[in-house]
Every structure is written in structure tokens, then in C-alpha cells.
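[audit] Reproducing an earlier prediction to check determinism. Same input, same settings, fresh worker. If the C-alpha cells differ from the archived copy the diff job will pick it up downstream; this log only records the rerun itself.
[audit] input (320 residues):
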Amino acid sequence: MAKFNVLLFEPVHPCGQNHLLENDCEIIWAKGFEPDQIIASVKDADGILARARGIIDGSVMDRAPRLKVIGRHGIGVDNIDVDAATERGIYAVNTPSAPVEAVAEYVAMAFIALPRKIAQADAATRSGDWAFRDRVHAPELLGKTLGIVGFGRIGRRLAEICSLGFGMTVIYADEFPAPKKEEIRLNARRVSFDALLPAADYISLNVPLLDSTHHLINAETLACMQPHAILANCSRGPVVDEQALATALKNNRIGGAIIDVFEREPAACDNPLFELDNVLLSPHYSGHSDESIQKMAMVASDIVRVLNGQKPEFPVNGPF
């Protein structure tokens, strides 16, 4: 008989699931992502392994008297009430470095793919529209200014790719300055958020979802950007006011947007961004690579550590 029950909402890479099974855990599956379905599933859970969907708040935790740890497959823990977990002596753990390379590479790729209309070029070639090459031209990244909002692991890796690889000028806005040696290495300069918006040709959002970052990008901040600026959001959907962004894009107030995360996920088919051709959209998968999905699934290691009375390697709260 298994020592521990670990609740999953959806599958993760087999390496993570196998790690649980190899350590005498039984995997139980949630009935769905809605609050009542989650509550109905947690009664016997010693641990939870969650991805981006499914809210785990105090009401869920109170229905799980055996719960000791909630593991987040990825970085963001906005779907976990960490304060409620702390009050109840429940660990929250995540994989803070797992998706860094995948997200940084995706953003850099998208900065080229969107303005150069790579998807449309492929379609044009297949349809015999060779004249596409004469109609579509786009600026190079060399010499352009990249503004990074949030200079953590992902922001710094993106700066490394774009500064050292593409020869871009990098400015960043963050509450905490990077070490001076890191700024020098990356040729990056810290500025205020208000100063970054009108100065950048490309802007990447790499911030967690907090009260202070909800709708950080809105009609007012969009109006401060350059008319050719390209905005990338691979952080959390509610950081951007989608209605305001759609309006700005329709009116060519900014040049384009790269949106991997949405205010509501899965995104509804009537989302106004779907109607636009100056956007590049993806289904919250910028952090998914062959390597990263394995690393994120190994949040299972910290779940097992906690269940066995050991300290986790990547705690978000605690110690207890």
C-alpha cells in the first residue's frame, strides 16, 4: 500500500510521475479544474502537483487534512494561495529555473518571426506567391533597444541572447537592481518603468502576477510606447489588459504583440486578439521544450522530500 497520495490535475512528463511512483506514492487524479471538482478530489491528498490550471486556495486546503506540500510545475505560483498554505504549515514548491531557457529562446525567436511574418512567408511560398519577398521587409534586431520588465532569471537570459547575440541595447526595469558585474556583462542599464516604455523598440514582460502587476500594460502605458514597438508577454495573462491591447493594435498605436498567456485560459475563440494580423499567439507554451518539461515535472522531487520529512530544494514559503 502506497505511503502517500499525490493529486495531479493533468499529466506531466513521465519522469516526474515515475519519480512519484518509485517513491511509494500513489497518483490520484482531480475530477476537473473547477473549484467544486478540486474540492471533491483532495480529501486523501498528502501532496498536490499542479500546472497552470486549477486554483488551490484555503478552501481547497481545508478539505485536505493530510496535505503537506503543493508543487508547482513551473515558476509562477499565482494559482496557489501561498499565504493560506503558510498559515496552515503547507509547503509550496516550484521549479524556478526549469523554463528559463525555453522562454528566453521563444521571445528572441518571436521578435524576429512576428515582424518578418515568418508564418505568412511559409504560406505564401506553398501557394506560389513568390512576390511576397518584395512586399514584406522588416527591421533587423541589431542596434535596436530591448526593454525588459522584470530582470530575473528569464529576463537576464533574454538580455544575454539579445545583447551578446544580436547586438541590441538592453534597458531593464526592476524593483531590485542586478549586480553591477551582471549589468556590465550584459551591457544592460536599469531605468524606471516609465522611462523604459518610450525608449524601447521591443518590450518583454517577465514579471509575476501580483496586485502591482495586474494590468501593468493598459491603455495609458500602451500610449507611452513607440508606434513601432513590439510587446511580448510570456509571463502571466492578466499583466496585460487584453481589450486595451487589442484596441492599440487595431489602431496601429504599437507595431505588434507576442502573446503566449491570456487573461482567461484556455483563451476563448472570440478573443479580440484572434482577429488581428499584427500579433503572434501561442497557447501558454513558450516555456515548453523537450528539456524544460522534464525539469518542471521534477518538482516531484521536492514533493517527495517534503512528504518524507525533508527540506525542499526550491521552497516558495517556509521553513516549517
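[audit] rerun output stored. Observation attached for the diff report: The longest strand covers residues 4-8.
[audit] end
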